[in-house]
Amino acid sequence: MATLTESEIEKLFSGAPQYFARSEGHYTGAPHPSVAFPWDEELQIRDLTDHTQIEDKAWSCVTAWPHITRDIQGDRSAAKKASEEKRRAHFYPRCRERPNMLSMGGLEKGSVGYQAALELSVADALQEAQWGFETLGMRTPAIIDQRQRMLTSKDGLRHMDETLILEQLIKNGRRYSEQHLRERRVSSELYNELFLQILHPPTKVLDHRDPYSLSVQISALVKVLATPNVWIDFSHVEWRIRLGQLLWSAEDEVEDGGSTMTTESAADIQEERYWLLIQILLACELLIRLDAITEGEELGLESIRPSEILRFEKDANSSVKWSLHLARAWLENIEVVKTESTEPSHDEKPSGWLATLTKRMSLSRDSHHNHRRTPVYAIKGRYVQRQVDGLTHFAKQLRWPDVEYATKIRDNCRSVTEGAPINTPLASPASRAGSHRSSYFGTPSRSDTNLKPVSRRRKISAALHPSGWLSKSYVSGLMLPGEGLCHFLMATLLENDQDAMTKLGPMANLCGGFVYSGKSFWSTSCIIGRVLAAGKGSAECMGWISSDITPEGLGDGWINVEVEETAEDAHHIDKKARLWAKHAVERESSVLGDADPSSVLPADFIIPFENIYRDKAPPVLAIELQSLSLFAAVDSAGTTPTEEYGITPLSDVSRPPVLQTYTATATFAVTQVDTGEEKEYTYSLVKDINFVTAHPCVPSQHVKFLKSPSSPTIQHVELSGNGVAGGKTASIVGHPLHKYFTYTALHLSELLEKRDFPLEALLGNYSSTHRPSLTPASNNAAKVLVVDCITGFKPLPQEHEIPLSPVISRTDSQVSRSFSMSSVNISRPVVDIGEANTPSTMESASKKMHSETRRRQFGSDMEILARAFCAEKGWNALISRRRRGCLACAIREAGALGWKVIIRVD
């Protein structure tokens, strides 16, 4: 038997995804997981993904990864055209959100993609869970001392009053809109502006060749922004969400008596806003220079030395790079508008928090004794209509109950669309919530985190209010990459629907769910949502799922769900995460298994199938979801219901409303169609597991499968290219699987009967009689369990047994070699699943993928049951759908993830 050549291996696995985990360079954190088709050049194959596209320009801020947004609304308004204009070369910091939000929306509703699945264990949200947030909500002495040192040092920040900061932000906005900054701006002009108004000049020459170069200015700005204990660190998810709260939360007058803030805490917020605006200004200055130097490199006007790049990557820590993301969001979406105000009276109090702050800090000594006409500055979103349209789109996708929601949203958002004056208090219900709690996410204190494993998902509760800071964050477009957009979308939808606010109340659990108007809505952070998403008629959009299934006995209201992290997931986080084992990820998913590439034999492969039944066919089942039930959870003592308190208190109450916590169960009726026997199964949705969409693949155009009476080893080489011994081609879609990957297939009905079996026992019962060539004598357990959710759930054609023998077409030399793939007896005919072996295969696959992004209405109660079973057992599972991807590629992806369960659906 001859070994396969390199060319033949590439043809055999054409269209098969390969799974990688590679580091992006120094100082970039965990490796980057990716899927690629290294042996294919066709764009229709290389562009296949396991996740949906972003479908609205208003949602583009959800990720820092470069991407193309598919705006399905087709609204070509002037504002949208302006936002879509192709700009000059931009600088992209090598620092992005984890998990990748593009990959968080898998093609299967309620699932994620390969990249997000690996990155959940190194997620940004884990950082605050591990280190705590005692310092986020309050200014510590270290922060106060460092900021004073920054202002008194001659090697740092100059004193700036409010007018200078805002005028410079206006100037940066105009400068950013210029199409060719490098041609219009010289380094010396930027140098003088920076070091005469914002920073003190360097104390030593940094570049003897050009002391005024952009590199010198970039280095000085990075040094200031990288100073610890001065700036807000937006690498923490909490602060990405709190950004809008800090800018737009209310400064209720203490004399009113209705505020929960003290005089001291109100002044602290004013000071934090001042420092935030300085941080935004410095980041904008840095980003504009980085854009300019990047454009110069692109146009051949400037060459960046490798040493400068290395110094930047070393000095620009994650906090600096996230400040750059903030600067991009500000310059893209925000404009500062200046108008004249009336002259204040002599006894009038200073207006505006910046005025109060500068007086307190003595940065502007005469600012409140000068009664000249002073300008008023307002923050306005550039693309308000785009954001409002995106909110309407979100509501439509989720099938919001009120048919008049579109008009309501547009009308109610008008108050938010007006520019928010910086010099006047901004209306919002939320006070400085973080000053007395450790985290926006309700993260427990450090002593509490030692009692239970850290969850990879945070719980988020917030107070809603019409036109509150959550709405302002979304409508302005000032949002940072990460999960925040999903929370802002739902919060804004609710804040602008008066009927929903009345029925649901002001406290929202944005990582749980709620029942409203006969439907249920769930965050994808909630296991109930991820399970119900598998049902027919469910809808998913931007981190939220809607379903016609509602919990029994519950009316309109919010729901908090108690779940447990699986022991394996809780242990393998951060440095112990699977992603760091990048060599294992690639080795355990290799198309060649553990074989030496120079000695790969044809007999080492088979075409796997999920439905191998030699004794008898499984029963035909009818499955129906009977009920979804919620029960009040109890604490560790087993007596008191668990309560989740919101951490954004209302200003008119001393204690926010209680969010009741529940545990969930799902009950199914399973009927054998032939006998009429019915059984009832109930599963507890208690484990916080994940579902991953198995990556799509395209059948190789270079392989034909032949029907033959047997499956011999190589006995003949056919030079004519007409096939082997007169065999007839069969329309089989799938890639080969190396014998390294052992698996066992169980029909769902058999799995139900083995409910009490641990996964290891199900894998250990692997029978070598099914596929003798794939299991060495020393290997008694399969690596993967394939749950067959295809066979017996609808009428099937007559059964046959067809041994397979593939042929690789060598079109370059017009030679066809026949070789055997280990014989597989299958209990149903090999059916044609489409144009799999025609020249138009890849075009068809591309069209299918476009339809997938619209979330074709797959799903059934049977699929809900399969997910509920996994949620009770604590099994992370891949969802592999026939026609989208073959079983062999799904098994290899399970090897990359280190998972052991595949749910194979029709």
Automatic annotation (TrEMBL):
Basic and acidic residues biased stretches: 845-855
Sequence ranges of Polar residues compositional bias: 436-452
Region (Disordered) residue spans: 420-452, 835-855
Protein's name in the database: Helicase-like protein
Organism: Echria macrotheca
